[in-house]
Each structure stands twice: as structure tokens, then as C-alpha cells.
Amino acid sequence: MSLRVGVIGTGAIGQEHIRRLSKKLVGAEVVAVNDINKEGALKFLDNEALNARFIDSPHDLINAADVDAIVVTSWGPSHEEFVLASIAAGKPVFCEKPLATTAEGCYRIVEAEMKAGKKLVQVGFMRRYDQGYKQLKAALTSGQFGAPLMVHCAHRNPSVPDAYVGDMPITDTFVHEIDVLRWLLDDDYVSVQVVASKNTKYANPNLKDPILVLLETKSGIRINGEIFVNCKYGYDIQCEVVAEEGVVSLPEPSSLLIRQHEKLSTNIMNDWKLRFIDSYDVELQAWINDTKAGKMTGPSAWDGYFTAVTSDACIEAKNSGKIVAITTPPTPAFYL
Ligand code: NAI
Ligand code: ISE
Q1: How many angstroms separate the CA atoms of 28 and 48, rounded?
Q2: Each residue of 300-319: pLDDT tens digit?
Q3: Which domains does the chain have, with CATH numbers?
């Protein structure tokens, strides 16, 4: 039987996920949607010729008898409320990052889920499902390269909308590195320092861009992460791990190499939708399969919490110019 999904938030990624759940992946159907922009949601359903119905209240959608599981793709500040309501209804919920906008909010979700006694929450950290990152992790765990010592990475967006300001390079963008590098290295963070570089003339006046994040892990690995969200030339994700016996890098997405007019060239993608298209597909298919099997093995509420604690520390480090300690309680047995 198909997993009957209700989606809250029919904006950019909501539409992407609804399309893939309805037309690409197997074992699920979107039966209901909600958005504060009802007109936009109805137009989208109509344009895509989808059968899902619009439900006026997100809470009615969560509690609807014909909705088995929820996907939350609304703006970050609304996530905590919808995830908590899904847990209260005893329904599995896939929530796009961030799980909640504060570490305290994430912890409330962790507590509610543990109280419910069953893992119900998956967070949308899709990079763990990316073929390139999986290859990188397999290479590191093979032991062939010895212990990782340093990681150099970059998260570059060609541009960002005017509403992207303040701490968003960390809370909206670098959170992907915070999660995926912790998973890749199987190590937790203990401190962070953040410095702004010379600002690009393309940055909105309320934005420091680019910035550099220097993280330290429990085992002593140093990570330097560049966040540059007005890089102009394309959407570019880089990750190089320097280990004792060699250096391993995230592969570039496959693209033709062209030799023409005395030039050797290749394409760089322009946005996250395309760059991680396969990862989103694999991520949501795994969520459907897990949900139908009554388990939850993807990035957990605890991962969402850990990322939020780290991102709060990054913000404190950015504002103070100091090295900030990152402290979290030990992982509860429920999440091991
Ligand atoms: P968006 O602004 O394009 O869409 C958000 C939609 O949610 C809008 O249609 C808005 O009307 C609706 N909405 C907002 N608050 C609501 C509420 N309280 N109840 C019902 N509907 C509500 O934003 P976008 O880019 O789709 O981002 C949504 C979330 O997905 C964000 O948390 C973002 O960080 C995350 N995201 C994750 C990505 C990834 O790579 N994993 C990529 C892009 C976004
Ligand atoms: C966006 O919200 C995402 O999650 C993308 O993956 C990221 O690259 C971008 O910087 C964010 O704005």
C-alpha cells in the first residue's frame, strides 16, 4: 500500500519534493498539502495535475485520518511546531533543515520523540545520501588513507535573495557542512572560530560574505570552511580531506569535458536543486521505505539538535571574534 503523505509548505523545495514523491519515487502519494499561500499552492497542484487536496489548517493536515506521514517544507521558524504536532499525532515526519531555529527548540523535539518512545523524525540533511560524499566516507573508513588530519571545504552559491541576511550563511547554508562533516569524520566538534574576509561588492549591506569557519573536532581534526553566497560563477560544493597517507576529495558532478576553439571546458551547475537532485531522490526514497517498514534510519532529531548547537556556537564566534567551545550532552541511548 502507498504511503499517504501530507506536505506543509509548497514553495521551492516543497514543490520539488511533491513532484518527486508523486511522479518519480515509488511507494508514496501526496494526498494533502497546506501553505499560508493557498492560491500559490492551488496553482501548483493545478499546473502539475496533482490529485492532492488543500487543507486550510496545517494541524488538520497532520491529524487527517488519510495522512500517514508528514513532510515539512515550510519556513524554518514553523518547523518546530509542525514536527511536535506530528510526534503528538504519532506520525512519522520528514522535516527540511533546520529542525528548529534554536538548539532549545530542537531539544524540545528530541525530548518529545524520546517520550513517544519511537523514532519518528528525519531531518533533510540530503548530503549523507550523495554518491560523492558516500564514496568519500567509504574511502576514509577503508583505512587506506590513514587518519584524517584536516578538511578544506567550500559552500558557494552564485547569489542569494534579498531576504537572505544576517546569520543565514551559517543557519541556512553552512548547516549542511556541519552535519555532513560530522557524519563523514564520525567525530564531534569541540570548538569554532569564525572570521569575515573582505566583503564582496555583490553582498547585500546586511551580509558578511564570504566568511571562514574554523572548526576543531574531538580527535583534533581542523576543518576550514568557506561560505561564499555571492560567488557569481555557479553553485559549487568542495570538500578535500587531508589524511596521513593521502588526500581525498569530493568528486565533481559528472559533466562533459569539451575541447573546442582552443579551449578545454566543463559546466558548473547553478543551483542546489540540480546539484543534489539525486541525493534528494535517494534520501526521500529511503525515508518512504523506512517509514513503511516502521523504522527511521536517516539523520535524526539528535543530529538536528547537534547541528543547531554547533550553528549557535558559530554565530557566537562570529559576533565575538573569539574561539567558542561547543558542548553537547552525550548522545542518549535512544539515538545510538
Ligand atoms: P520557500 O520560501 O520557497 O517556500 C516555503 C513555503 O512555505 C512558502 O510557500 C510559504 O508560503 C510556506 N510557509 C511558510 N510558513 C508557513 C506556515 N507557517 N504554514 C504553512 N506554510 C508556510 O522556501 P524554500 O526554499 O522552499 O525553503 C523551505 C525550507 O526548506 C527551509 O527551511 C529551507 O532551509 C529548506 N531548504 C532545504 C534545502 C536543502 O538543500 N535541503 C534547499 C532549500 C530549502
Ligand atoms: C538553501 O536553503 C539550501 O539548503 C541549499 O542546499 C544551500 O546550498 C543554500 O545555501 C541554502 O540557501
Answers
A1: 17
A2: 999 999 999 999 999 999 99
A3: 3-127+278-301 (3.40.50.720), 128-270+322-335 (3.30.360.10)
